[in-house]
């Protein structure tokens, strides 16, 4: 989705705007459909202990180079039946792609997933399926950090009209991706995004230039949002819903990004002392931005990244695998450390993040071993939970049985 986002909340997620009440909206009228302004405050939980192991070295570029140790028996883990059932459904969805993907973690091969995927189609009990088809491994020290994301719903319109003044842009035709590996072998895997100007390849317009209207009038206006603050948060999420004036819904998803660096202004605001203790949730950040609109706009523009959208008409929202993501079952992860499509067990210090999840997405801020972003769906509860999600604990990756023995035996991996 992000997902591009994806997109993390808590300290990594932030947004801003130039108005508390967008132009054309009567004072007192709701600017958004969802107004769950308080982040959910769950009860505390004690995570399971990690398996003693060193932290990932700074040079680690994959799970295999970070270090892999055996985890506990899956049957011994506190797996909730309902969560396991959601994860099984998500895993089934991922299976066709999982078997075809090139796993860059260094742990598995596409053929390794054939047996678990076949078993998943026949499974009638999710907990039994996971405990018999997989083994748990721990990547490096297993110390996990999880944030949350959701599918926001904001007010929007297909045409510009009073109360809907902020453009939602489609991907511009002059936004170009260049694979540098085509020009030099030592640059394989590196890509640059920009545009051509006077015969030279230059960076694409940053957030400030776009908000000041450099793309205006070029037919890129996919829709118009009522609240620029909410639109920015939707950009961080990578997809969302526009509630149209007639009550219908237009779903939009990530199409591209301008290639400029992403700055998590939530952390930026915290480092500058702008957020008091307990204000570092999405809701706290938004409240500050609404109360300090001019300063908020300046802070926002320090995040030069800008997301472009496309209308979604099929199932969704879609994750990085191009497949629909599942509320309370999908996590975004770094594909260098978690095979996309693989199950992960989280034991965190807040119970709503605990259980089996499936890595079906990625995110710009989701980097490194044992870093996850949990997906909560749409609506007030999802917004409240994701907005305050900041959990620490233990992560175990579930891989096909026999994976660890093969790795220890020195058999080749991708």
Task: Give the CATH H-level superfamily.
Answer: Barwin-like endoglucanases
Helix content: 10-25%
Which CATH top level class fits? Mainly Beta
CATH architecture: Beta Barrel
Number of strands: 17
For the record, give the distance between the C-alpha atoms at the N and C termini, rounded to a whole number.
Answer: 26 Å
Strand line-up in the sheet with most strands:
3-16-13-15-14-17
Strand content: 15-25%
Enzyme class: lyase
Domain Lytic transglycosylase MltA: 153-310
Protein name: peptidoglycan lytic exotransglycosylase
EC number: 4.2.2.n1
Quick overview of this protein structure:
Helices cover 23% and strands 25% of the residues. The chain is α+β, with helices and mostly antiparallel strands and 414 residues long.
Task: Outline the structure in words.
It is an enzyme of class 4 (lyase). This is peptidoglycan lytic exotransglycosylase. Residues 153-310 form the Lytic transglycosylase MltA domain. This protein starts with 62 loop residues before the first helix and ends in a 6-residue tail after the last helix. A hairpin with a 2-residue loop joins strand 7 and strand 8. The protein has helices spanning 63-66, 81-98, 114-122, 126-133, 207-211, 228-237, 265-271, 282-291, 293-300, 380-388, 403-408; strands at 68-70, 134-139, 143-151, 153-157, 166-169, 176-179, 191-197, 200-203, 221-225, 239-243, 249-257, 307-312, 330-333, 343-348, 355-361, 371-378, 391-400. It has one domain: Beta Barrel (Ribosomal Protein L25, Chain P), CATH 2.40.240.50. The chain is built from 11 helices and 17 strands.
């Amino acid at each position: 989705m992000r997902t591009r986002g994806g997109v993390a909340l808590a300290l990594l997620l932030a947004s801003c705007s130039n108005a508390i009440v967008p132009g054309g909206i009567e004072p007192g009228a709701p600017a958004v459909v969802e107004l769950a302004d308080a982040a959910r405050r769950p009860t505390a939980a004690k995570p399971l202990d990690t398996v003693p192991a060193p932290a990932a070295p700074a040079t680690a570029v994959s799970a295999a180079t970070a270090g892999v140790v055996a985890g506990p028996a899956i049957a011994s883990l506190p797996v909730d039946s309902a969560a396991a059932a959601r994860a099984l459904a998500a895993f089934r969805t991922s299976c066709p792609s999982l078997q075809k993907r090139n796993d860059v973690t260094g742990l598995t091969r596409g053929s390794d997933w054939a047996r678990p995927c076949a078993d998943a189609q026949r499974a009638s009990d999710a907990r039994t399926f996971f405990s018999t088809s997989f083994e748990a491994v721990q990547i490096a020290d297993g110390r996990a950090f999880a944030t949350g994301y959701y599918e926001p719903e904001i007010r929007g319109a297909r045409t510009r009209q009073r109360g809907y003044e902020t453009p939602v842009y489609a991907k511009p035709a002059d936004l170009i991706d260049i694979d540098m590996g085509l020009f030099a072998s030592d640059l394989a895997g590196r890509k640059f995004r920009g545009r051509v100007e006077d015969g030279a390849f230059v960076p694409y317009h940053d957030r400030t230039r776009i908000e000041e209207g450099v793309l205006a009038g070029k037919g890129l206006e996919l829709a118009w949002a009522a609240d620029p603050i909410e639109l920015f948060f939707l950009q961080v999420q990578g997809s969302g819903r526009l509630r149209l004036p007639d009550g219908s819904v237009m779903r939009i998803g990530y199409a591209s990004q301008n290639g400029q660096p992403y700055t998590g202004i939530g952390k930026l605001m915290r480092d500058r002392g702008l957020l008091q203790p307990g204000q570092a949730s999405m809701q706290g950040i938004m409240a500050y931005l609404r109360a300090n609109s001019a300063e908020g706009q300046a802070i926002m523009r320090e995040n030069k990244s800008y997301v472009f959208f496309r209308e979604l008409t099929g199932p969704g929202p879609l994750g990085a695998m191009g497949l629909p993501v599942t509320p309370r079952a999908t996590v975004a992860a770094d594909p260098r450390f978690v095979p996309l499509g693989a199950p992960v067990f989280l034991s965190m210090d807040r119970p709503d993040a605990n259980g089996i999840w499936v890595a079906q997405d990625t995110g710009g801020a989701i980097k490194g071993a044992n870093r996850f972003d949990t997906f909560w769906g749409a609506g007030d509860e999802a917004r409240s939970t994701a907005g305050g999600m900041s959990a620490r604990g233990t992560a175990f990756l579930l891989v096909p049985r026999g994976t660890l023995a093969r790795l220890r035996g020195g058999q080749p991996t991708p």
